[in-house]
Amino acid sequence: MHSKVANPDAVRELIICETRVFIPSIVPELRYWGVDEETPLWAATEATLEQAQLPPPFWAFAWPGGQGLARFLLDTPDRARGRNVLALAAGGALEAVAAARAGAARVVANDVDHVACVAAELNARLNSVQLETDAIDRLDGSDRSERMLAEFDLVLVGDAFYERALSTRLIAALERANTQGVEVLIGDAGRGGAEAAAFAESCHQIAVFETPTNQELEGVAQRRVRILQKCGNAER
């Protein structure tokens, strides 16, 4: 599960020691281990992270798209209740935690960053829910990935269209999942380029949230998050 993390216990200790517990701005029911300007990990340089063999801690922020998706799932728990749920590019997995809180039968938080998987486990424990994590590349288009996607009823993507190469692979995987009858829910914070915008146009907008942001990170005080849906073969 964490094959590239030499000592997962050490990673857990690092996260607990160098981050602190936050309350997401529009999801006050949940908690997550994160960073701000007062936490050591915030001030860590790229060289420091590289020396510690850690990628940038994207998992340590409650990004607006993930918050909006978590808010939607808690407001409409029937969307996840009793279902097998996969959160792709999950980071700290706020939306996966919300799905578990909403009563999902099984929740898997997937992220190729193994440290994010450890953070997701800690966030699940912090919120007294259970989820699985894995760092499998589920976007590679292989037959194995296709079979794994078909194991789920619902795929969640929160705020992941921030980089073109990732967006291209993610959109292709979501389209494949959708053709297999898997419902897709997206927390879209409006970051993507033309390809992401075109994909968004193929979805149904089912909710909108105005989400406060960390202005130092985002450059804006809030972002408008659209919850987008592709329904697969069976409408809900």
Describe the fold and architecture.
- This protein is α/β, with parallel strands linked by helices.
- It has a single domain (8-230), classed as 3-Layer(aba) Sandwich (Rossmann fold), CATH 3.40.50.150.
- The chain is 38% helix and 20% strand.
- It has helices spanning 8-18, 40-43, 46-51, 64-75, 94-101, 114-126, 143-149, 164-179, 194-201, 215-218, and strands at 20-22, 32-34, 84-88, 106-110, 132-134, 154-158, 183-188, 204-212, 222-230.
- The strands form 2 sheets. Strands 5-4-3-6-7-9-8 form a 7-stranded mixed β-sheet, with helices on both faces. Strands 1-2 form a two-stranded antiparallel ribbon.
- Helix 1 packs across helix 6 and helix 4 (64-75) runs parallel beside helix 5.
- The model has no long low-confidence stretch (mean pLDDT 87).
How many separate structural domains? 1
Assembly of the depicted chains: single chain
Q: What structural class do the secondary elements suggest?
A: alpha/beta
Q: Separation of termini? A: 32 Å
The largest beta-sheet arranges its strands as 5-4-3-6-7-9-8
**Dominant shape:** globular
CATH class: Alpha Beta
Compressed to H and E, one letter per element, the order equals HEEHHHEHEHEHEHEHEHE
CATH topology: Rossmann fold
Report the radius of gyration as a whole number of Å. 17 Å
Strand content: 15-25%
CATH architecture: 3-Layer(aba) Sandwich
The largest β sheet comes out as:
7 strands, mixed
Classified in CATH, the superfamily is Vaccinia Virus protein VP39
Tally of alpha and pi helices: 10
Residue windows where pLDDT falls under 50 for at least 5 positions? none
DSSP, total strands: 9
Mean pLDDT: 87
- Give the helix level as a range of percent: 25-40%
